[in-house]
Amino acid sequence: MTTPPPLGAEYFDQWYADMAESATRDQVQLRALGLPPELESTSLLSWDGIADVVDALAVGAGDVLVDLACGRGGYGLEVAARTGARLIGVDFSAVAIERARQRAAGRAEFRVGRLTDSGLPDASAHAVMCIDAMQFADPYAAGLAECRRILVPGGRLVLTGWQARDPADERIPARLHRDIAAELRAAGFAEVTATDQPAWREAERAYWTAAVALDPGDDAALRSMREEGLRVAPVIDRTARVLARAVAPPAS
Questions:
Q1: What is the rounded end-to-end Cα distance, in angstroms, of the chain?
Q2: Backbone torsions φ then ψ of 206, nearest 5 degrees
Q3: How far is CA 241 from the centre of its chain?
């Protein structure tokens, strides 16, 4: 498995900028994941997966929902529309945040911040969602600690992501070699569950199949998509597709 490119803010700023110039990239992704055209996705959660996340978050009208590593804001805006929650999106890419603000048109707050330092006050969120991104926290435990810090006691954290089925499998990137449930418990969360989602996996498989079949030409976003597909497709079944839920403990 080839080594992925650097994954800092500068890399993602360019990644999002390339998306804005691509006429095809979003069409391919939305079709594979079953998403509506108005939802600008930057992750791999399907339409049915959004419903699962909404159920796990259990937020209602007026609750503060933080979408950590929100990208262009599509998932958070959809969840907020379904639940009536007040959305705050945080991402370290200024390019993504600017696009999210344009799409939100005042319906939500979006701000630049990091997985490990959101810039939000203590105990300011009723729920936190992080879609396919917590593995980029450095270190991972600091990202979970930040989620716990900004959650009210009893608030819910919902993560989606991947973890290696075999901890010794060197074909899987090191950032996926972790037990998400164990990490959440070590971070002090309660009522932790982490379940494999085979239906999400099939939507993801359709996405990567489409990505590998692309002829990207000079489209940088499609080229990046295909290159990632060539890395991921051969090992897709060596990872579990995870939905993790946890609750912030009561104040001591």
A1: 46
A2: -60, -40
A3: 12
φ, ψ at 109 (rounded to 5°): -105, 135
Give the integer Cα–Cα distance in Å for 31 and 173: 27
- Residue range 9-247 in CATH 3.20.20.80: no
What is the rounded distance in angstroms from the CA atom of residue 53 to the CA atom of residue 47? 10
- Residue pLDDT, tens place only, 214-249: 999 999 989 999 999 999 999 999 999 999 999 999
Q: What per-residue confidence (pLDDT) applies to 144?
A: 98
User: CB–CB of 41/225 below 8 Å?
Assistant: no
pLDDT tens digit string along 132-190?
999 999 999 999 999 999 999 999 999 999 999 998 999 999 999 999 999 999 999 99
Q: Which two tokens stand for residue 241?
A: 């597709």
Q: CA-to-CA distance for 100 and 111, rounded, in angstroms?
A: 9
Joined together, the tokens standing for residue 75 give 């998932």
Amino acid 147 reads: C
DSSP-based helix, strand, coil % in the chain, nearest 5: 45, 20, 35
State the Cα–Cα distance between residues 66 and 133, nearest whole angstrom: 14
